[in-house]
Amino acid sequence: MAAGGGGGKNVPVRSAEHGARAAQHDGMRKDGGGDPYWSRPESRVWKVMLLLGTCLLYCARVTVPICAVALSTRFDWDKKQSGIVLSSFFWGYCLTQIIGGHISDQIGGEKVLLLSASAWGFLMVLTPLLTHITSAHLVFMTSSRFLMGLLQGVYFPSLASLLSQKVRENERAFTYSTVGTGSQCGTLVIGGAGSLLLDWYGWESVFYFSGLLTLLWVYCTCKYLLNEKELIIPIDYLMRSLSISKQTKVPWKQLFKKAPIWAVIIAQLSTASTFFTLLSWLPTFFKETFPESKGWVFNVVPWLVAIPTSLFSGFLSDHLINQGYKTITIRKFMQVIGSGVSSVFALCLGQTSSFCKAIVFASASVGLQTFNHSGISVNVQDLAPSCAGLLFGVGNTGGALLGVICVYLAGYLIETTGSWISVFNLVAAVNSIGLCAFLVFGEAQRVDTDSAYVDL
């Protein structure tokens, strides 16, 4: 299959590349018996449902950070203990990324998404109930967060696998950015509704709210988007997909010898870990630095700003690529904004004593981070669409592992220094490392091209 994704210097060259790709995919459809891509109506419906799924993923993920102060008060935890509970999510999160991406590449990302969502929805509903029958609350909540990480770890690798197989290259950035806004929508929903529920009915109600909505989403997706055959996963086929066969068509050794693969992995683990750090600690930062402020303000406004910025970044990226700009140039430009400029505002956040300025800086930092959706997040699909799920899982595994360290280290730094400046310095430093690696070694041409991929 011809290399693609690097773009051309002018529109005619770009069109020729897309024409060649289209001809090859036509050949695949004739051999494989079906268009591998969603039609436009299908794409619209799936975009909406995946956006909602991502929204509910983050509703569940951010529930504990939103309730961190209430849980600390209820169970008498200090900052280090809160940091253990918050960081335990990422220990579980890092363990299922790779296998989740691999299974998704084999049986379909939509099946893996629905299985994981069903499990974490039930876990959210059961967690408040089980806290009443145990006295070891720190151990229980740490274990619960660890299990939540295991279940949610498969989500984004599965999403990357699904979109790489169902969405055309020149539509991927906007599609991924649209679905990616679910992370901000989810944080926004749980930040607003969760803060009100927390004030009115206590922390348990926030867990019930998130869990029940997730189970409703799973039911609607299964009922209206998938037919009965698509819901059935043969056990023997699933077991075969759990191991990476020696006869696999993916040339792993060759892939991991290529600098662009490592560049996107390093950039991804950097941005993921710093995003997790801000996600985990921003509510506590505002609560302690500005104790008179309303929770719904600082839990809502930054994520509200992030929604239009994410959509704009996807639209701008696809538009510039369709105008003839090189794909890698656009990916790197988006990443400079997503990692570089956003870090500048994070540094400003640690220096201000004004609540209004803090909201502006937090909104700018969180909002501009969404440009990553049009940078490294889709660059994985540029480089290796045939195994995008697994490669995304590798990067997210690194991000989760570094996230564990950064989230816990942030709590340690706050406890020992009494200052939040060190936390935002940490965010900026980690982002800078990933950005530099991507700018120097990043590419957008396919590196998985081989005759063996024609029938994938």
Task: Explain the overall architecture.
This protein is an all-alpha fold. Helix content is 78%, strand content 0%. It has helices spanning 11-32, 40-66, 68-75, 79-93, 97-107, 109-131, 137-152, 155-166, 172-201, 203-224, 228-231, 235-241, 252-255, 259-289, 295-298, 301-322, 327-349, 355-369, 376-383, 388-417, 421-441. The longest helix is centred in the middle third of the chain and has 31 residues, at 259-289. The chain is globular. The chain starts with 10 loop residues before the first helix and ends in a 15-residue tail after the last helix.
Helix content: over 70%
Percent of residues in beta strands:
under 5%
**Pattern of helices and strands:** HHHHHHHHHHHHHHHHHHHHH
Radius of gyration, in Å, reads 21 Å
Our measurement of the CA-to-CA distance between the termini, rounded to an integer number of angstroms, reads 11 Å
Average per-residue pLDDT, rounded, comes to: 80
The number of helical elements comes to 21
pLDDT < 50 stretches? 1-33, 451-456
Derived structural class: mainly alpha
Approximate shape:
globular
Largest sheet: none
Number-wise, the strands total 0
